[in-house]
Amino acid sequence: LASCSSDHTCRLWDVESSECRFVLDGHSWSVRHCSFSPDGGLLATASWDCSCRVWDTASGRCVCILKEDMGSVESCRFCPTNTILATGSKDGSFRLWDVDTGQCVHVLEGITVFKPFDASSFSPDGTLIATLPSDKECCLWSVATGRVVTKLKVDVKGVAFSPKGTLVATWWDGAVTLWTTLTGECAVKFRGKEYIADTCVFSATGDMLASCFGKKCFVWNADTGQCLSVLDRHEEKVSFALFSRDEATLATCSVDATCRLWNIDSRVEKERINRLWRMKRREWMNAAHCTGIRTAIAA
């Protein structure tokens, strides 16, 4: 598990032992987001110091620094099929990078990164990337050409492709909408009795979807929109969630400086990584990402 924070560092954790393996220290400002490469061998970190760093997870060594005149970097995400990395910046642009060469291959212009962690998503086959030009629109771009393929008109603060790539999820506070990728038509829309979606993530098969809002995490049936579980033990805002590969466990990450592992069916907390580091006045966990390699998270 990787966690990044406002103390300028990113930490790699062994989920089985709850021990920190590496402290990745090199950024000069808050680290806002992190993303593992498809094989788990690399980790990208996005920072307000206007750079994105790529680290070797086996040694904790920085192998590449991606930096252009692009303002504070709010998000980063690896393409699932190759070494392309997407970064989102406060200057209103997304960049696609070749990690092997360190070169920027495309600049996707005119994008407002108002919700940095969920402002982009690659399709599973790596041919498309979804971004949010504004809070009223979601665009699907061709990774090969850097051009817009489809536009979805909807109130939106986050976007994610389903694992099969046939659906695109968009969300805004009180609702989650699933769209058909090929046609851009609405497939299903579901709501709760309260605000339900500040961030969302699909399970490995796409059968379930978790949405986080405030101190709660909601688990949904992605086909019907039925709410399966409400996980509400965190003391502060839940900023991130991640399913295990067998879909039996859900990890939630919170600004209360804990990660909790839940049994989805029983809603029982299986394990808690408590106070991941000594908290200072304005330091908190910004995001977390899991390789899915450790058995505590992945089957």
Automatic annotation (TrEMBL):
InterPro entries: WD40/YVTN_repeat-like_dom_sf (IPR015943), WD40_PAC1 (IPR020472), WD40_repeat_CS (IPR019775), WD40_repeat_dom_sf (IPR036322), WD40_rpt (IPR001680)
SUPFAM superfamilies xref list: WD40 repeat-like
Superkingdom to which the source organism belongs: Eukaryota
Record keywords, A-Z: Repeat, WD repeat
Residue stretches of each WD repeat: 1-23, 24-65, 66-107, 231-272
Pfam families xref list: WD40
Keyword Repeat tagged: yes
The protein, known as: Guanine nucleotide-binding protein subunit beta-like protein
The organism of origin for this protein: Palpitomonas bilix
